[in-house]
Amino acid sequence: MKSGFAGIIGRPNVGKSTLLNSMIGEKIAIATSKPQTTRNTIRGIYTRMEDGEPKAQIVFIDTPGIHKPKNKLGSYMTDAAISTLNEVDVILFLVDSPLEDKNSGDRYILELLKKSEAPKILVINKIDTIGPEAFQRIYGEYEAMGMFDFILGTNALEGKNVDVLLEEIEKRLEEGPMYFPEDMITDDPERFLVSEIIREKLLLYLDEEVPHGVAVEIEEYEESETMTRIRAAIYCEKQSHKGIIIGKGGKKLKGIGKSARLEIEALLGTKVYLETFVKIKENWRDSDIAIRNFGYRPERQG
Ligand SMILES: Nc1nc2c(ncn2[C@@H]2O[C@H](COP(=O)(O)OP(=O)(O)OP(=O)(O)O)[C@@H](O)[C@H]2O)c(=O)[nH]1
Ligand SMILES: [Mg+2]
Question: What is residue 263's three-state secondary structure?
Answer without folding.
Answer: helix
